[in-house]
Design goal:
This protein is of the alpha+beta class. The chain is built from 2 helices and 7 strands; from the N terminus they run βαβββαβββ.
Length: about 140
Amino acid sequence: AGVGFRAYRNEGGADFQAWAEANPAGCRRRFQIRSAGGTFTPPVSNTDVEEHQVTLTVLVAYPTTGRDGAAQALDRDDTMDADAFQIDKALGMLGRANFSGAYPDACWIEGSPVNRIDGESATFIELAFTYIYQRTR
C-alpha cells in the first residue's frame, strides 16, 4: 500500500495507452518504461568495451476520475506535477546517485520536458531520459 507506482506488465502488444484507456479503474499511477528504439554505431569501442546511448521513455497513467481530490482535474494536475518531479529526481540529472555503485557506467546526459497526453478515460505524463553506458563484450 505504501508504493505509489505500479509497473505495467507489457502483456500482449504492450500497448500501455490502449490498456489504460480500457482499464481506468486499474491504471492510476501505473507506468511503463521502454527504450525509444534506434541504435547506431557506438562512438567509442575498443572491441572489448563499447559506449552506447539509450533513450528511455517513462509513461504514467492517471484515470480521469475524482480519485485525486474534490477539485477533479486540478487535483489530478497537482498529482501529475508532483509525480513528474519525483520521477525526474530519481531518473534525471539529480538521480545520478542511482547510477553509481553497482552500475557506475550509466550516465544521464539529457532529459526532455514533461509531455502531457490527454486521453478519453486517462491522462498520461511522459518523460524521456537519455543515458550513455558502457557495455562489455
